[in-house]
Design brief:
Elements lengths: L28 H6 L14 E7 L5 E5 L2 H6 L3 E6 L25 E2 L5 E7 L2 H9 L4 E4 L10 E2 L17 E4 L2 H6 L3 E9 L11 E7 L2 E6 L4 H12 L6 E4 L15 H13 L3 E4 L2 H7 L6 E9 L5 E13 L10 H5 L5 E11 L12 H19 L3 H7 L17 H12 L11 E3 L2 E13 L1 E3 L1 E8 L4 E4 L9 H13 L6 E4 L16 H26 L17 H8 L3 E8 L6 E3 L9 E13 L4 E12 L6 H20 L5 E2 L4 E2 L19 E5 L23 H13 L10 H4 L2
Parallel strand pairs: 1-13, 11-12, 15-16, 21-22, 26-29
Antiparallel strand pairs: 1-5, 2-4, 2-6, 3-5, 7-16, 8-16, 9-14, 10-11, 10-13, 14-15, 17-18, 18-25, 19-24, 20-21, 20-23, 25-26, 27-28
Helix pairs in contact: 9-16, 12-13, 15-16
Bound molecules: dioxothiomolybdenum(VI) ion.
The site of dioxothiomolybdenum(VI) ion (MOS) has 11 residues, from loops.
């Protein structure tokens, strides 16, 4: 490895002070830490009613009674809505909705936490007490759990609600069975990942108000336009009559990617009461009201030659979903794209149970699935006594493993090699239990990361005013991804105007339409739309100049420095020049992994971790992590690095802490608060997380050369940790999260 040429790394030699590639600090940082940033739940127009949902405590059965009389007798309670008062709705479609089971349509109960009634009151306290007085009675039926259910093929194509089937359910290439018969080494193991919740800092919240026939909504969302489409569909009004605002979102991770019951209930409450209604979910309600990552079984089989060359990769998955919806967690997504292999099989199944519909959670699909594939690869390295990194390099895919398409850009090899060098991987003893620090065992593990490229159609507008002010407009919100910083940066680059003069207007359906802030897509897609708008703006100003040869200008863009634009506008008596731009990938409005182009498009990474294990206590900690990424062009190395560190911490949580246990007898999440669900806190996170990006420009993925950064950082971390724990202890972890008893001597 040491003989390889060093790859150029972003920021290694030079970082620009402005524009694309500049590590400028978050634009929204101060507003967030000072509390100046206003979130949906803080909106409170005069006359606002507070809404509280009374939810089912059983997973399946029938509602037999609600004491609405007692609730209505509570001073301050204005209205109680139950399934009796509810209009017949729907059908809701998945995307923009997270599930098709709309609330309060009948007394039937389909999952724990299903809304039974909506209480509207003058104060939050009255609404809470009113809801408590409802004391629902039930006729329960025994619920079905993941363990009881059987695996079925998810609906896809034109059947039913196929929106969750974002890729082919089953894919195969080559002679899989034959490969196993003749293999020198075979790995055949089951890996398990649990249900997990997004646990955003800002719980979901909606403020809804009708002004005439227009619905005004402040929502905590990842997709302003999705909320517009969802509410317009259920209320049967034109999308333009729904105005959604959300400048800031306090974390989403997928929980706010789609529309759930609360947005709809807030809007319905507002319509019925004729007043603004605020519905802010409690922490507990977030465990049943806006999705979760479903538990999954992964069956991985690998066949290889003596030198580690893969002959077959098989990854079969089965994930939990609701009775109503076929949510598919494509845990085998990584296996479809990561390694060169003559035979490949990915099979995807679901198990229906009496639960609400799961949803995407950072990083969906590849995140849980790569724990399995990269764990199996580590097991293969052990079985063949080859170095785990060498095994990856030996099976490096130079083109898409399934269809042979060229990659739009891939610099994973450079990431592997540089990360290994920084980590000191070449000094790793091959055998487990070979490294100690005092009474603690030390282990080094590595894994690959891979993440799909979601190219979503986006629009943006750039305005240049006679006073020199530049405004960038886009409907998307700032969710912590850096959009508020990065989008003006792109405009600054294209226009050649200092970023201080650029204002971003965002998070509003009154602004140009973008896709949701999900799928690691915003910088790539909205950034490209901004670049397009900025180029058009320049051309427009040039044309304005050329129109009558102002001051002898040649009319070419190069001839007109931005410092003169204001004067040109003034001379022409033009107050403002406006240009609209768009990003429209082949297959708009959405293209996954370049599927509709001639290229395979994926983001990549290499993760190396050092774990320490105290076998007397069954405790493990991450000591350090080195991770390198190939994600296309990096627009802002500082915000991108923050995103990836967040992903690594998220992956640490997946590996070591996070688990939302369902009580199988009652079909309920055992704990619906943060005292019963562990999350990483600062004390869990090592200071030594070294993140870098290989210098790259992906000319095919997007106009600005970027791919996705937001989620790839989570992928592979859990596998690298589990592999390091094997190296430390000789114990193989195939079920997450790691429990103390897995490590006890
Ligand atoms: Mo992310 S799970 O695409 O919000």
């Amino acid at each position: 490895m040491s003989g390889e040429t060093a790859a150029p790394i972003v920021g290694q030699d030079h970082q620009p002070a402005a524009g694309i590639g500049a590590p400028i600090p978050r634009h929204d940082g101060r507003a967030k830490v000072t509390g100046e940033a206003k979130y949906a739940g803080e909106e409170m127009p005069p006359g606002t009613l507070h809404a509280v949902v009374a939810a089912s405590s059983i997973a399946r059965g029938r509602l037999t009674g609600l004491d609405t009389r007692s609730a209505l007798a509570m001073p301050g309670v204005v209205t109680v809505l139950t399934h009796r008062e509810m209009p017949q709705l729907g059908p809701a479609t998945v995307l923009p909705f997270g599930q098709t089971q709309l609330p309060m349509q009948s007394p039937e109960i389909h999952y724990e936490g299903e809304p039974l009634a909506l209480v509207l009151a003058e104060t939050l306290e009255a609404a809470v007490e009113g809801a408590a007085r409802l004391r629902p009675t039930y006729e329960p039926t025994q619920s079905v759990s993941f363990e009881d259910g059987r695996e079925v093929v998810p609906r896809s194509g034109s059947e039913g609600n196929a929106a969750f089937a974002i890729m082919d359910i089953d894919v195969q290439k080559g002679e899989v069975d034959a490969a196993f018969e003749n293999a020198a080494a075979v790995i055949d193991q089951i890996y398990r990942t649990p249900c997990r919740h997004h646990n955003t800092m800002e719980p979901s919240a909606t403020l809804a108000e009708w002004r005439g026939d227009t619905l005004e909504v402040h929502d905590a969302t990842q997709w302003t336009y999705g909320v517009r489409y969802g509410l317009s569909a259920v209320f049967g009004i034109p999308p333009e009559k729904v105005h959604v605002r959300c400048p800031y979102t306090g974390g989403g991770f997928g929980a706010k990617g789609t529309v759930w019951s609360h947005q709809f209930l807030a809007a319905l409450g507002a319509r019925i009461s004729g007043r603004p209604v605020k519905l802010a979910l409690t922490r507990a309600a977030c465990f049943t009201g806006c999705g979760y990552q479903p538990m999954m079984r992964s069956h991985v089989r690998l066949a290889a030659d003596r030198d580690g060359t893969l002959r077959a990769v098989v990854h079969e998955t089965a994930n939990l979903t609701s009775q109503a919806d076929d949510y598919v967690e494509f845990g085998n997504a990584g296996a479809r794209g990561l390694y060169a292999t003559p035979a490949l099989l990915a099979r995807t199944r679901i198990v229906k149970a009496d639960v609400s519909t799961p949803t995407a959670m950072r990083a969906p699909h590849e995140g849980p699935g790569m724990f399995a594939l990269e764990g199996a690869m580590d097991e293969l390295a052990v079985a063949l006594d080859v170095d785990p990194l060498d095994l990856r390099l030996r099976n490096y895919a130079e083109s898409d493993p399934l269809d042979g398409k060229p990659f739009s850009s891939k610099k994973l090899r450079e990431a592997y090699i540089e990360a290994a060098r920084r980590f000191g991987w070449s000094g790793r003893p091959r055998t487990p239990r070979a490294m100690r620090d005092g009474h603690k065992l030390l282990g080094w593990g590595m894994a690959s990361a891979i993440m799909g490229t979601n190219r979503i159609a986006a629009n943006a507008r750039v305005r240049f005013a006679v006073d020199g002010a530049v405004t960038v407009e886009a409907g998307c919100q700032e969710i912590g991804n850096g959009a508020a910083t990065v989008l003006p940066q792109v405009a600054a680059e294209v226009l050649g105007i200092p970023i201080e003069r650029i204002t971003l207007r965002r998070g509003d359906t009154g602004l140009p339409e973008t896709g949701g802030t999900f799928g690691s897509s915003t910088t790539m897609c909205v950034g490209s739309a901004v670049a397009d708008a900025a180029e058009k703006l320049k051309a427009r100003i040039a044309a304005l100049t050329a129109a009558n040869g102002a001051n002898g200008a040649s009319g070419t863009e190069a001839a007109i420095p931005p410092e003169r634009w204001g004067a040109i506008l003034a001379e022409r008596g033009v107050a403002e020049v406006v240009a609209d731009g768009a990003f429209a990938p082949v297959g708009s409005p959405w293209d996954l992994n370049g599927g509709q182009s001639g290229y395979a498009m994926l983001s990549w990474g290499a993760v190396f971790v050092e774990m320490e294990v105290d076998e007397a206590l069954g405790l493990a900690r991450m000591r350090r992590c080195v991770a390198g990424y190939s994600v296309g062009r990096v627009v802002n190395p500082r915000t991108a690095r923050s995103q990836v560190i967040g992903g690594i911490v998220w992956g640490y949580g997946r590996a070591m802490l996070e688990e939302s246990v369902i009580d199988r007898r009652y079909g309920r999440f055992l704990s619906k608060n943060l005292s019963g669900v562990m999350l990483p806190v600062n004390a869990d996170v090592p200071r030594d997380i070294d993140v870098f990006f290989v210098d790259e420009h992906d000319p095919h993925a997007s106009k600005i050369g970027a791919r996705g950064v937001g989620e790839v950082g989570e992928v592979g971390v859990a596998a690298a940790i589990a592999n390091a724990l094997y190296h430390a202890t000789g114990r193989r972890i195939r079920r997450l999260p790691v429990h103390a008893e897995d490590l006890l001597a």
